[in-house]
Write a structure and sequence with these properties.
Keywords: Oxidoreductase. This is Flavin reductase (DIM6/NTAB) family NADH-FMN oxidoreductase RutF. GO terms for molecular function: FMN binding; riboflavin reductase (NADPH) activity. This protein is mainly β and 175 residues long. It has one domain: Electron Transport, Fmn-binding Protein, Chain A (Pnp Oxidase, Chain A, Roll), CATH 2.30.110.10. It is 13% helix and 41% strand. It is built from three helices and twelve strands. The strands form three sheets. A seven-stranded antiparallel sheet has the order 3-2-6-9-10-5-4, sandwiched between helices. It has a three-stranded antiparallel sheet with strand order 1-11-12, with no helix packed on it. A hairpin with a 2-residue loop joins strand 9 (130-142) and strand 10 (145-157). The longest helix is centred in the middle third of the chain and has 9 residues, at 70-78. It is globular.
Length: 175
């Protein structure tokens, strides 16, 4: 340690490139890929990678959703949502639920294999690595997004399969 509290390694000059946007910097952070769904009159699906676990006791997860997206109103209206954690062979579903040109409402699920979650009624996408059904407990303002906190009502896991991740602007498969 040096006098200023830095280690010798921290005194090495870094080859720092020009500043970039937050979006460009965060592209270097690999994330899992999910599809968030809502049931009933607000039935909707959306690809999301702004998702994470928060607490094991009580079981809580969060997802971040833009104020201007259809999913924002759908989660707020339904008060429930489900999360399908996509597997490596489900890139087509990630792309489909990210496409704003797909049909709205329950019709967007007509070409997708799914079952209604027993606790929420929200679509659970077949073949995913895991599924969570959640009850909305809190919504926090976070800039141009809301942070939705959900209490996990049910969680299921598929023991077969490999993960789909999003990194540097494209999908990748974890071996």
């Amino acid at each position: 340690m040096t006098e200023n509290g830095h280690t010798a390694a921290s005194n090495v000059a870094l080859d720092v490139p020009a500043p970039v946007s937050l979006r460009e910097a965060m592209a270097q952070f690999a994330t899992g890929v999910t599809v968030i769904t809502t049931p009933g009159q607000s039935c909707h699906g959306m690809t999301a990678n702004a998702f994470n676990s928060v607490s094991l006791e009580p079981p809580l997860v969060l997802c971040c959703v833009s104020h201007t997206s259809r999913m924002h109103a759908a989660i707020t209206d339904a008060g429930r949502f489900a999360v399908s954690l996509l597997g490596a062979d489900q890139e087509n579903l990630a792309r489909y639920f990210a496409d704003k040109r797909r049909p709205g409402g329950v019709a967007q699920f007509d070409t997708v294999d799914w079952v209604a979650g027993p606790h929420t009624g929200a679509p659970l996408l077949s073949g995913s690595l895991a599924w969570l059904e959640c009850e909305l407990t809190e919504a926090y303002a976070g800039g141009d997004h809301s942070v939705f906190l959900g209490r996990v009502l049910s969680s299921l896991r598929n023991t077969a399969g490999k993960a789909l991740v999003f990194y540097n602007g494209s999908f990748h498969r974890v071996a």
